[in-house]
Amino acid sequence: MNASMLSYIVFSCLLLSVQAQNCTVREIIRYTIRLLEENSVSCPCRETAVSSCSCLPIAEPGHELACFVEGTEHMLKNNISSNAIIARLNLTFQTQLGRNLCESLARGDQCQYKTKGNVKEFLHKILRTYQAINK
């Protein structure tokens, strides 16, 4: 391996760690795990039936941030679980979307999804998304 290849690899790793930092990945993962521990109830999401179970957007690739903002706003309005944590996550997602801090997530500022899920499924989507960035 030559010196230019090594410097390229070091630079790439540095860029990835900076991007992960801007995405506040560890903080989001920690908060999401805490919310998942609180939300042990996994009720089915039915959009048509009147149900106490919230239906939140499960984002298409590239639209995660917009859907995370929309979903956490819905959770705040409906007093689902710990409001302080959800408010913090919502603000973080809005900041990341507005400043384009997580390039891999924000290709569009519209939430696009094919399916909706309950709170637990929504939180798992957040967790999987940020764990993938953290790798």
UniProtKB/TrEMBL annotation:
Keyword set, alphabetical order: Signal
InterPro entries assigned to the protein according to its UniProt record, in alphabetical order: IL-9 (IPR020447)
GO cellular component: extracellular space
MF GO annotations: cytokine activity; interleukin-9 receptor binding
Region forming the signal peptide: 1-20
Highest rank taxon of the organism: Eukaryota
Name of the protein described by the UniProt record: Interleukin-9
Upper classification of the organism: Eukaryota, Metazoa, Chordata, Craniata, Vertebrata
